[in-house]
Amino acid sequence: MINSLLRNTLVAAAGCVLLGLAGGVLTHKVAAAGSAQITIQNFDFEPRALTVAPGTEVTWFNGDEEPHNIVNADLGQPRLFRSPGLDGGEKYFFTFDKPGTYRYICSIHPHMEGTIIVKAPG
Amino acid sequence: MDTDQGENRGTSRRALLKCMAWAGTGVVWTVSGGVPRALSIGEAFAAAPDGFTFVQISDTHIGFNKEANPDPNSTMQAALDSFAKLPKRPAMIIHTGDVTHLSKPAEFDTAEQIMKGAKFETHFVPGEHDVIGDDGKQFFARFAKEANPGGWYSFDQGGVHFVGLNNVQNFEKSKAGGFGEDQLEWLEKELKGRGSSTPIVVFTHVPMWPIYPQWGWATEDAPQALSYLKRFGSVTVLNGHIHQIVQKIEGNVTYRTAMSTAFPQPPAGEGPAPGPLKVPADKLRSVIGIREVTVVPAKPAAVTDLALA
After folding, report:
1. What gap in Å lies between CA B241 and CA B244, rounded to an integer?
2. B67 chain-A contacts, CB cut-off 8 A
3. Residue B259's closest CA among B201, B208, B306?
4. pLDDT tens across B271-280, in order?
5. Which of A31, A62, B232, B305 has a C-alpha 20 to 30 A away from that of B224?
6. Does B1 touch chain A (CB under 8 A)?
7. What is the pTM of this model?
8. By CA distance, what is A111's nearest residue in B?
């Protein structure tokens, strides 16, 4: 429930970003880059590093039988996202609005690391 | 961090293969001088030692529902029921974490019900599966009310000083198990005034020596904890996490990881990842089980690992 609430809030936030850019040449590209998926397989994020446009909704799909989670882990920074434990076959969504580099781990298996790079296209 | 990997890999593989070879025959493990050896149940019973006896269970993973064990409730129950077959009634239970699989309230409810039915005093430390999403709030409220705010605690029983440590909530920094500065500071103070002849049992979820750091089978700041422990004459470190028996002896410190009551995992580095290891259903109970520990002052603790079947 928290997950879907968060998702709705962030989708709304992404809408604001789009509105803010309305009329600009970027609008189309940002909208086109609306979603991306990361698959968790064999205790690894695939791809480990993903570059997306602001406003992109990223989906993590757990393809393992073992549970994993997705926890933003930029030391010294406030935590921006933290999924519940995802059992095999479950998904988590998060929409990235602000440009930047976001490191994350699976807090159950902290050797699993990934990075989302958010930057405006062009 | 990566010392001794080869040796440990060898030990764990041998242990698992031996255990598999004994599948279905009522295997009882004993560890003497660091070498596991299988005993018949009769032999084990005859050898009931004097001293303070307790049992360790680990990695019950209530909520797990995949092929490797579709019914972890039953195997946890069978583990608790198996105490009745021990030569001596254990004084208490130590649970070394991963009580639940996904930290869900219903999983905690079930685990609590099963434990209550066993009617044994039980001391818990969390595994990383018990602190998902809520920083361990449910776990500590139910299973470790005695713990300090960070989840660590100590107590004395049967002439033994027990220390429960939490090494699953410093993962982001450690990339493996980790205690963190506050806990290490507490441990140093906690042990300072104690006579070095006091037998010490440390229990914590993730192994305290680097079995296989690539899979997170290590505790990053364990060497500092060890520096406070090594002056004691008898230190036994009990862990879970890797769902198999691996041990190491270093001076007066013996390290022992335990079987799960739910499902085995592959030996270090075998296969792509440390997930559940599927064995034929009729073999499962030969690779999961419990551990009996007897502490006699001034000697290494006697450890017997018992498979459920």
Report:
1. 8
2. 65
3. B306
4. 988 989 999 9
5. B305
6. no
7. 0.82
8. B175
